[in-house]
Amino acid sequence: MRTCDVDGCDKPHRARGLCATHYNQRHQPNRHASVEVVPCTMCGTQIEKPKGQAARRRPFCDGDCRDIYFLDQVPPGRGKRPRMCDQPSWPSWDGATCQIVEQECRICAATFFYGGSGRPRVYCSRRCYNRSKVKARGGRHKVRRLAIFERDSYLCWICDKPCDPLAFVPDPTAATVDHLIPVSKGGQDDPGNLACAHFMCNSRRRDSWDISWVA
User: Fold this and answer.
1) Is the dihedral of CA 52, 100, 43, 58 positive or negative?
2) Cβ count near 215 (within 10 Å)
3) Cβ partners under 8 Å of residue 136, min gap 6
4) In terms of pLDDT, which residue wins out, 209 or 33?
5) Is the full-model pTM beyond 0.70?
6) Which of 172, 163, 161 has the alpha carbon at shortest distance from 215?
7) Peptide bond between residue 165 and the one before it cis (omega within 30 degrees of 0)
8) Cα separation of 107 and 123, whole Å?
9) Going along 62-110, which residue ranges are E strands?
10) Would you say residue 143 has pLDDT above 80?
11) What was the pLDDT predicted at 198?
12) Whole-number Å distance between alpha carbons of 127 and 135
């Protein structure tokens, strides 16, 4: 029986003069690997991809190479490929729906970009989003909180105990602005209806008329 041609190996011959072990080491080094090293379709950079179809179907090193490639190489039967964000390169057409959309902020009119999948965005930042909420509430937050605190000497109107001027929410002793007549019951945002209150007292009271149980 013919054996392996490698010196010192007496295993049965498989092909090309080698046994199964040495044949796989020389001709199929990635046979049992979980990844394959393949060249990028666009720039040729050697990259690792999960073994299987993901490594054989137009692999790309990043989203930029993928998008540049598809600007000219439009798949048959498809429309022009939109600009995509840096998502996994495969599947590059089916499933990778994170299209980059250019939008103008409703508050500051600045141009920003976001992933087009999901709900559309209309604000460029959290700051503009908060400004839109202030606008919708009729300017409730335009009242200077510091002026209310100093007027009440940082004394909670619910429990008659001082608030901590250096504490911040969600610290229970932090100072917050509370409506004497709750907004849900017709209260307004004028300074006469606002008072200093502990964050904990304000949270426990909610929109109740009775504050005896809170204190």
Assistant:
1) positive
2) 14
3) none
4) 209
5) no
6) 161
7) no
8) 7
9) 100-104
10) no
11) 93
12) 12
CA 161/CA 215 separation, integer angstroms: 10
Do 199 and 169 form a contact (C-beta atoms < 8 A)?
A: yes
Give the CA distances from residue 182 to residues 22, 137, 185, 202, 205, in Å, rounded to whole numbers and listed in that order.
Answer: 81, 14, 5, 11, 10
Please tell me the predicted confidence (pLDDT) of residue 153: 92
Number of neighbours of residue 125 by Cβ within 10 angstroms: 13
Beta bridge partners, 196, equal 177
Q: Output the CA angle 16-21-24, nearest 5 degrees.
A: 65
CA distance linking residue 19 with residue 3, whole number of Å: 7
Q: How far is CA 55 from CA 95, 135, 145, in A?
A: 17, 52, 59
**Is the pLDDT score of 58 beyond 80?**
no
| pLDDT at 162 exceeding the cut of 90 | yes
Read off the pLDDT band of 92 (50, 70, 90).
very low
Please name every residue paired with 179 in a beta bridge, in sequence order, or none if there are none. Answer: 194
